């Protein structure tokens, strides 16, 4: 790269942009599942915030007004969408935005989401029911708590459950965990969400404000049909948050705690800055003494004897690069959500379960095309016993956000930022003095179990914690997590490839381990 100026510099910058654009040009064929065509009533598709009838099915004219806007892309058509209440849909036009680094948001693809009537979708819903039922059980008690053991037995009866297993079975060590081998090693919660660090001159101890559980001042939400229907219509709201009775709001726990159960994780991912956990992970790793990837141009080179990195390949570079990839990831996944898949949220599927089970006794309802695995599950029986119906108990008064479920914003950002973390830092660095939370979350105690916890493994785990934390809240499916983190990984890879053209330093190389366990060098 030349030390050029004026017109020569402008020409060089133009050439880099053009060459990158040519290299990144891709035309991708997208493949949604067939639910939108198969069910003209849109039972398998996202409709929250649109108008619904008394049975809870979306009104055709309202759904069609959304499709008209998505098909035309005209801002005036988005302004004309027929909503059911006063909560706006979340940023459908973001899927039409461009980026100038990495791949164009529309040049990526996700596989089809599980179909509404499939056993896979039923299995995911059974897991979501159990996550709701176990929100207040500490992760460390999954090997002994009766309800956790009931969840394990129920998940093992499913004909198509794709969560992690050992010896072909779900057990306490795999329950609600991510899909990489490192996710099964050590405490449920990543060290990057537990260990203290310094944010500049501020000491951060990583205790969080979480929510009180039912029976202690808190609540689960949307467990009766009237409140469920109001939420689907976006009614009884204040500035997009359901705050009037009987909706909430969430009651904060006056004691700040370390993350130790599903409700705590749900509370964290309710309000987190999307790149927050990975920015903090970078600070935790650097504070612990982690160095940079061996391919950093200042590692063991002549340049490293006379210079050190800062804005390029130094600690400011690491912190900004890990955070900056969240923007391209969000644009990419918003295109998939709104323009390709439009998949219903778990709370909407819970409404279908509720109505199907009442169809024989209430003439308002009828049976929906759901797999028997969910209808016959012990999870549904437990929810019915607690709440008098099979609606999915939600951690938040407003339930899910007002945008489609698949893919997952948190999961795509997780995949992108965790990939950058592994690529920029020394992913093999072993985190010293690992900890785990006490069952009440008021202190950390040493982790003395097997295995060494590395930056690589804990980066994979924090990605799963954040993405699956949304599932603990009831707002996402497992397939939203496991497919979206892989999409986010690809977003980060293409950013790293493009950015190689931007540096003056000789031969930067990033070697890291992908989520599937394979090594990659850029």
CATH architecture: Orthogonal Bundle
The CATH H-level homologous superfamily: Vanadium-containing Chloroperoxidase, domain 2
Task: Tell me the fraction of residues in β-strands, as a range.
Answer: under 5%
Distance from first to last alpha carbon: 19 Å
Summarize the amount of helix as a percent range: 40-55%
CATH class: Mainly Alpha
Work out the oligomeric state of the chains in this entry.
single chain
Q: What is the average per-residue confidence, as pLDDT, rounded to a whole number?
A: 95
**Could you name the CATH topology?**
Vanadium-containing Chloroperoxidase, domain 2
Instruction: Please tell me what the overall shape is.
Output: globular
Which regions contain 5 or more consecutive residues with pLDDT less than 50?
Answer: none
Provide the gyration radius in Å.
24 Å
Write the H/E string, N to C.
Answer: HHHHHHEEHHHHHHHHHHEEHHEE
Q: What is the count of structural domains?
A: 1
Structural class by helix and strand composition: mainly alpha
The total strand number stands at: 6
Structure annotation, total helices: 18
Report on the architecture of this protein:
With 522 residues, this protein is mainly α. It has one domain (30-521): Vanadium-containing Chloroperoxidase, domain 2. Helix content is 41%, strand content 3%. The protein has 18 helices and six strands. The strands form three sheets. A two-stranded antiparallel sheet has the order 1-2. α9 (276-287) runs antiparallel to α17 (455-472), α12 packs antiparallel against α16 and α12 (326-341) packs across α18. The mean pLDDT is 95.
